């Protein structure tokens, strides 16, 4: 869907200048099989435009960015396969391609000033940087919904505006003059921020979680009212109260004691 826009952006960029090394950043790159698909298409588009202008192939520096918790090891293991694919599908004389992982939030600075020619981000910017600070509890919901207090919706909107502004500000410092950026974001056609058009999947997840919580409470109720374990731990002295001294003597002869003192802490807890 964004390919025509990407091709147009790269064409305009090549009309401005032709760098010897293209620096491309994929922000929110993920770690699955799709990680290198977008990068491959970008490089292919650049190479197509380069050929039409009769220029030598540049080198490519690709930056793959995601949060530090992303599985970058999986990405790095896929680099040789990606580079092999480039060598096989591109013609002789194709420039080298170098891949670097850049862990960090794209709501902050990630690259040196004026170092990027092209920035790409697909379906990542709808993730805001943190849970908004809310004046009221968002009871029964995990996101914006029609049942949310107005203050909750306002908090989400405010957080998105703050994050998106920060994103654009950081990229404006990092992209070279005349550079390009293509962003793909989830959106909605109407003005209602709680529209199911944009958040139906979160509503389904919230329904599932509420159902799970309800089942847990029902289980706890059954546990407290209907379930009893048919076991009772007696004491030796209790038996003495019910039986005569003769039985007590017999018990003294045959009952041995297994101490559990070492498993019980001073505060009444257990050591396992």
Automatic annotation (TrEMBL):
<comment type="pathway">
    <text>Alkaloid biosynthesis.</text>
</comment>
<dbReference type="InterPro" id="IPR029063">
    <property type="entry name" value="SAM-dependent_MTases_sf"/>
</dbReference>
<keyword id="KW-0808">Transferase</keyword>
<dbReference type="Pfam" id="PF03492">
    <property type="entry name" value="Methyltransf_7"/>
</dbReference>
<keyword id="KW-0479">Metal-binding</keyword>
<keyword id="KW-0460">Magnesium</keyword>
<keyword id="KW-0489">Methyltransferase</keyword>
<dbReference type="InterPro" id="IPR005299">
    <property type="entry name" value="MeTrfase_7"/>
</dbReference>
<protein>
    <submittedName>
        <fullName>OLC1v1008304C2</fullName>
    </submittedName>
</protein>
<comment type="similarity">
    <text>Belongs to the methyltransferase superfamily. Type-7 methyltransferase family.</text>
</comment>
<dbReference type="InterPro" id="IPR042086">
    <property type="entry name" value="MeTrfase_capping"/>
</dbReference>
<dbReference type="GO" id="GO:0008168">
    <property type="term" value="F:methyltransferase activity"/>
</dbReference>
<dbReference type="GO" id="GO:0032259">
    <property type="term" value="P:methylation"/>
</dbReference>
<dbReference type="GO" id="GO:0046872">
    <property type="term" value="F:metal ion binding"/>
</dbReference>
């Amino acid at each position: 869907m964004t390919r025509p826009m990407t091709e147009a952006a790269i064409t305009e960029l090549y009309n401005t200048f032709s760098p010897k090394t293209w620096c491309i950043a994929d922000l929110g790159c993920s770690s699955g099989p799709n990680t290198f698909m977008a990068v491959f298409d970008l490089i292919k588009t650049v190479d197509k435009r380069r050929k039409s202008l009769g220029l030598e192939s540049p080198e490519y520096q690709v930056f793959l960015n995601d949060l530090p918790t992303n599985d970058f090891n999986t990405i790095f293991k896929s680099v040789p396969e990606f580079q092999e694919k480039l060598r096989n599908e591109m013609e002789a004389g194709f420039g080298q391609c170098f891949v670097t992982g850049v862990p960090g939030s794209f709501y902050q600075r990630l690259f040196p000033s004026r170092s990027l020619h092209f920035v790409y981000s697909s379906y990542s910017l709808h993730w805001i940087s943190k849970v908004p600070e809310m004046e009221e509890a968002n009871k029964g919901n995990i996101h914006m919904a029609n049942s949310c207090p107005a203050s909750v919706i306002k908090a989400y909107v405010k957080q998105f505006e703050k994050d998106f502004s920060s994103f654009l500000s950081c990229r404006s410092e990092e992209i070279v003059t005349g550079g390009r950026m293509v962003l793909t974001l989830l959106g909605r056609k109407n003005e209602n921020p709680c529209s199911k058009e944009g958040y139906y999947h979160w509503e389904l997840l919230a329904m599932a979680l509420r159902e799970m919580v309800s089942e847990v409470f029902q289980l706890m109720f059954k546990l407290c009212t209907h379930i009893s374990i048919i076991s009772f731990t007696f004491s030796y002295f209790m038996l003495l109260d019910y039986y005569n001294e003769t039985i007590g003597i017999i018990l003294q002869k045959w009952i041995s004691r297994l101490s559990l003192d070492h498993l019980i802490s001073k505060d009444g807890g257990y050591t396992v």
